[in-house]
């Protein structure tokens, strides 16, 4: 199995892993330690697998981030999120900290802004609201009541920008809280060490 497919599969199955980890017994230690080990081992698999996929023109696609790219991740949260593997690595890190819903919400908002049809906007806006905004929703993100109420009022005829303020709040929360910890994490340091050695 090549590492890109593995990462795509692990990203799509994130919800299933969370559900599975709640129902399966842990081998030893605290549940958070075991979950962190699981996601760290997934990243290690990605780092150790040398196979490279090919696109339709048979050009090799870069498998791992270079040291220059990793250095850019450390300088700019925006650059980290704009880089495919940066998003994957950061999401793995967020899972280890049990706050992956922030990234999932941010990504959902990014996709939402690209919707053209008003009926699709309405359907997707309600879905995002139920999943991330509504009180006691499965993946509720940390937003103030005023922002939540403003979004709730816009659901009948949502604009592409109806989640813009909430998305910015969550972006800043990740940038100021999770991102500095990611840059100091063993996960990021291991990525850097492997990039230097290759």
Characterize this entry briefly:
This protein has 198 residues and is mainly alpha-helical.
CATH domain class of the domain at 100-174: Mainly Alpha
Instruction: Count up the helices.
Output: 11
Q: Unreliable runs, pLDDT <50, ≥5 residues?
A: 1-28, 50-61
The largest β sheet comes out as: none
CATH topology of the domain at 100-174: Regulator of G-protein Signalling 4, domain 2
Structural class: mainly alpha
Biased composition (Basic and acidic residues): 14-23
Domain RGS: 76-192
Protein name: Regulator of G protein signaling 2
Biased composition (Polar residues): 1-13
Can you give keywords for this protein?
single chain, 198 residues, mainly alpha, Regulator of G-protein Signalling 4, domain 2, 0% strand, disordered N terminus
């Amino acid at each position: 199995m090549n590492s890109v497919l593995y990462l795509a599969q692990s990203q799509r199955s994130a919800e299933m892993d969370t559900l599975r980890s709640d129902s399966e017994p842990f081998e030893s230690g605290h549940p958070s330690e075991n979950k962190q080990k699981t996601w760290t081992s997934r990243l290690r698999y990605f780092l150790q697998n040398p196979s490279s996929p090919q696109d339709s023109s048979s050009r090799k696609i870069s498998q791992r981030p270079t040291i220059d790219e990793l250095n850019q991740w450390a300088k700019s949260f925006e650059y980290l999120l704009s880089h495919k593997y940066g998003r994957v690595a950061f999401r793995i890190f967020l899972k280890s900290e049990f706050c992956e819903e922030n990234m999932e919400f941010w990504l959902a908002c990014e996709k939402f802004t690209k919707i053209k049809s008003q009926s699709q906007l309405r359907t997707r806006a309600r879905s995002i609201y139920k999943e991330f905004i509504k009180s006691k929703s499965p993946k509720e993100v940390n937003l103030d009541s005023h922002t939540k109420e403003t979004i709730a009022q816009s659901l009948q005829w949502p604009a592409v920008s109806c989640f813009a303020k909430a998305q910015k709040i969550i972006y800043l929360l990740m940038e100021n809280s999770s991102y500095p910890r990611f840059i100091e994490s063993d996960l990021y340091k291991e990525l850097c060490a492997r990039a230097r050695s290759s």
